Amino acid sequence: MVVYTVGTFDLLHVGHLALLEYCASLGDTVAVGVASDEVVQLYKPKAPAIPLDQRIEMLQALRCVDIVIPYHELDYLTICEEVKADIFVIGEDWGRKPHNQDVENYFNEHGKKVVQIRYNPRTSSTTIKKNIIAEFQKK
Fold first, then answer.
1. Strand partners, 29
2. Residue 29 host element (H or E)
3. N or C terminus of the chain with fewer C-beta within 10 Å?
4. Catalytic residue (choose from 46, 84, 97, 130)
5. Is the dihedral of CA 77, 42, 50, 128 positive or negative?
6. Catalytic (active site) residue 46
7. pTM summary value
8. CA-wise closest residue to 90 among 113, 59, 124
9. CATH code, residues 2-138
10. Radius of gyration of the chain from its Cα atoms, rounded to whole angstroms
């Protein structure tokens, strides 16, 4: 079984690792879609701190990840079909945007599974960035 998940994976942290290890527990192959800087700016106020090529390299180094594919458009379905995903793992902030609904509809129509997970707010890249900035502002 191929498990697919997507994200920015900026400032790789234990929350990311927990997600990816969970994905590995669901199937034989873990495929990870990594948002390009341009895609991230469509839904976040700032570009990632870590360049796309380095985020890809860090993910490829993890034992629990088998395939890493960057995506340059908000189109999850193309890569899901490319990697022949059986399970799509999403976060609780997934939402009901058209590009999200397309992939959910595809999985439902083909008897495949969408698994939604909860985030741990202590392991957010945004929180890590804010903590680093606050620490430097103290000095």
1. 2
2. strand 29-35
3. C
4. 46
5. negative
6. yes
7. 0.85
8. 113
9. 3.40.50.620
10. 15
